[in-house]
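Quick illustration, no need to memorize.
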Amino acid sequence: MEYKIPLILTPQPEGGYTVTSPLLPELVTEGDSLDESLENVKDAFRAVLELYQELGRSLPENIQSGIVVQHFPY
């Protein structure tokens, strides 16, 4: 199953990006490039899914199919 998750990519002064999601505060990852950061989101999201399943929590209702990316420059 695919999900649509709002992502915030924050450029880091030393290079690379930190990725967070306003809907899933547990989702935090990073990467040296945009491509690497977005690839790492997949693993981070799988970890969040596992955590939610272990805790018996449901994902927020407004998460849908697909992934949406917002990029905020400095």
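The beta strands are 6-11, 17-20, 28-31, 68-71.
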